[in-house]
Amino acid sequence: MTAAADAPKPRRRGPGRPRQDEADEGPGTQERIRLAAREVFAERGYDKTSVRGIAKVAGVDPALVHHYFGSKDDLFAAAIEVSIEPALVVPAIIGEGPDGIGERLARYFLGVWENPVTRVPLLAVIRSALTHEAAAKVLRQLVLRRLLERVAADLDVPDPTFRAELAASHMVGIAILRYVVQVEPLASADPEKIVALVAPTLQRYLTEE
């Protein structure tokens, strides 16, 4: 028997499984995929985006995208979460107590939309959510479940879910009219003016008995 025949054969990959050297590339690779996904989703929308297309932009094998993020829906949620960062935002909004929470929430929400870097992927999710259930699910999970419900629940008020939904309807409606449909004069209004007018309503939704 030859030495070549005695050499161990390389292990075969299972379906959808990246090479070991790919899988070990670590969080830097995950972040590159996430940022590429945000770019591609924002440019093409949900329906026209593919995992293969995202992998090409990120410079990785499509199997590696599935390895880190699972399905296209999961990747979409991860890409949008980069813009919203609920884990960081919630403590900042509720940290000072109920007084002024409406203003802090309105200022945070408009700040995200006013920033061109974070606005683009949010435009993608809003536009896609109007016609695609997967995108609508992401919007519900991130904006309502992971942000507003946590804020309302921490305030210890009755009907926190209902209150969160009212706040969400108010802010998402503003986003659609100002940034998607671009209705004037709302589209060109000073953000501070919007905060001043919207904050008392959000405060009432989230804190009044």
UniProtKB/TrEMBL annotation:
<dbReference type="Pfam" id="PF00440">
    <property type="entry name" value="TetR_N"/>
</dbReference>
<dbReference type="Pfam" id="PF17920">
    <property type="entry name" value="TetR_C_16"/>
</dbReference>
<dbReference type="InterPro" id="IPR036271">
    <property type="entry name" value="Tet_transcr_reg_TetR-rel_C_sf"/>
</dbReference>
<dbReference type="InterPro" id="IPR009057">
    <property type="entry name" value="Homeodomain-like_sf"/>
</dbReference>
<protein>
    <submittedName>
        <fullName>AcrR family transcriptional regulator</fullName>
    </submittedName>
</protein>
<dbReference type="InterPro" id="IPR041678">
    <property type="entry name" value="TetR_C_16"/>
</dbReference>
<feature type="region of interest" description="Disordered">
    <location>
        <begin position="1"/>
        <end position="31"/>
    </location>
</feature>
<keyword id="KW-0238">DNA-binding</keyword>
<feature type="DNA-binding region" description="H-T-H motif">
    <location>
        <begin position="50"/>
        <end position="69"/>
    </location>
</feature>
<dbReference type="InterPro" id="IPR001647">
    <property type="entry name" value="HTH_TetR"/>
</dbReference>
<feature type="domain" description="HTH tetR-type">
    <location>
        <begin position="27"/>
        <end position="87"/>
    </location>
</feature>
<dbReference type="InterPro" id="IPR050109">
    <property type="entry name" value="HTH-type_TetR-like_transc_reg"/>
</dbReference>
